[in-house]
Amino acid sequence: MSVSAESEEKILYWCNVVATLLSFLGSLWMTILCLKTPSPKSVALKLILAIALSDLVYTIPNVISMYGDGNGLMCNIEGFLRELTAMLTIFFSTATAILCYKDSAFNAKFVQEVFYKKAVKISLFLALLLAVM
Question: To 10 degrees, what angle do helices 5-36 and 43-67 make?
Fold first, then answer.
């Protein structure tokens, strides 16, 4: 049984809608949970919040791609946001992994708050640089 091209497009469209909705709801839920956590918030929790916000913003290009025509300004905005948020997610995930490793290594010279500030600055810089390229 063959499937027509129009039918395949509808299937892909609804897969995109469902995946975007689930991603949005999951990221929103993580953001709410991180923000509802009583103070003081740990550095690891801040990095998880950064990942959740990055994934939350990543759903915007998916919505744009569903309704955009594939060229022009909206396409450029979609591409920029997609690259920026994908890179931020990778960088924040890496920073979280480094933080977990350093924390488990019992390194007395390692200061989590300083690491967090540096990781955020470097991540934003590199993600913007790669998104612009």
Answer: 150
Closest CA to 50 of 111, 121, 129, 104: 121
Q: Say which CATH class 5-132 falls into.
A: mainly alpha
Report the phi/psi class of residue 49: left, alpha or beta, with left for phi > 0 and alpha for psi in -120 to 50: alpha
For residue 86, give the 3-state DSSP assignment. helix
Residue whose pair of structure tokens reads 């509802």 in the numeric block: 36
Mean pLDDT, the chain, as a whole number? 81
Domain range list for the chain:
5-132
User: Is residue 4 classed as helix, strand or coil in its secondary structure?
Assistant: coil
Q: What is the pTM of this model?
A: 0.70
